[in-house]
């Protein structure tokens, strides 16, 4: 199996990525001495590349990174690449969900279409890259539902489910249909 250094500093994402790459890659921890990578690209692919390239350069090993955006049609695609800092820098997941629900307060549920988009990337010391994408279509719910997951999971009901939000699903159910799940299944296939 290939060994990949995980570029993510988000422990929730690391757990998901490790589960999704199980049997294909051994996920090595991000070197603790590497500072946070500034994600200032204007695309998901650009941010994934910044993170993977920085960790690859610091470790001298192949590195894996991803970046995810939430695109809400009623908001012209926002928050998009800025999903993690939608309510500002240093905010909580709850702050981001609160802002999103407030901005959609007057939008009927049927018009709250959205999608999560994840770009996953491996950067190798020789400069080569493997890049894949996963997309999950769904709706932003009227209220938060469920206690599992992280980020926007409590307000996103995927189209390919029974109406539950990601936060109401088990990890296995979520990973089977989620944007990150789809991206990392594609990455595993590309690496295998």
Description:
The structure is a single chain. The protein is an alpha/beta fold and 192 residues long. The chain has one domain (2-191): Maf protein. The chain is built from 5 helices and 7 strands. Strands 1, 2, 3, 4, 5, 6 and 7 form a 7-stranded mixed beta sheet that branches. Strand 5 and strand 6 (129-140) form a beta hairpin. Helix 4 crosses helix 5 (179-191). The radius of gyration is 16 Å and the shape is globular. The N and C termini lie close together (9 Å).
The average pLDDT score comes to 94
Q: How much of the residues is beta strand, in percent? A: 15-25%
Architecture (CATH level 2) name: Alpha-Beta Complex
| SSE order | EHEHEEHEEEHH
Major β-sheet annotation: 7 strands, mixed
Number of domains: 1
Number of strands: 7
- Low-confidence parts: none
- Fraction of residues in helix: 25-40%
Computed CA radius of gyration, to the nearest angstrom? 16 Å
Cα(first) to Cα(last) distance is 9 Å
What would the principal axes of the Cα set say about the shape? globular
Q: CATH topology, anyone?
A: Maf protein
Structural class: alpha/beta
* Distinct helical segment count: 5
Level-1 CATH class name: Alpha Beta
Q: What would a concise description of this structure say?
A:
The chain has 192 residues and is α/β, with parallel strands linked by helices. It has five helices and seven strands; from the N terminus they run E-H-E-H-E-E-H-E-E-E-H-H.
């Amino acid at each position: 199996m290939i060994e990949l250094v995980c570029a993510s500093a988000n422990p929730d994402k690391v757990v998901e990525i490790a589960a999704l790459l199980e049997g294909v890659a051994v996920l090595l921890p991000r070197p603790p001495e590497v500072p946070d990578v500034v994600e200032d690209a204007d695309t998901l692919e650009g941010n994934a590349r910044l993170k993977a390239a920085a960790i690859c350069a610091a470790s001298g090993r192949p590195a894996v990174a991803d970046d995810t955006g939430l695109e809400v049609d009623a908001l012209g695609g926002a928050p998009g690449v800025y999903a993690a800092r939608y309510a500002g820098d240093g905010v909580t997941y709850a702050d981001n969900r609160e802002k999103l629900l407030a901005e959609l307060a007057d939008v009927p549920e049927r018009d709250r279409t959205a999608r999560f988009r994840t770009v996953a990337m491996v950067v190798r010391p020789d400069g080569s890259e493997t890049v894949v994408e996963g997309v999950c279509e769904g709706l932003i719910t009227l209220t938060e539902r469920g206690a599992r997951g992280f980020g926007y999971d409590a307000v996103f009901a995927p189209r390919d489910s029974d109406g539950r939000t990601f936060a109401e699903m088990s990890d296995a159910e979520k990973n089977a249909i989620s944007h990150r799940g789809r991206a990392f299944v594609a990455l595993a296939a590309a690496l295998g």
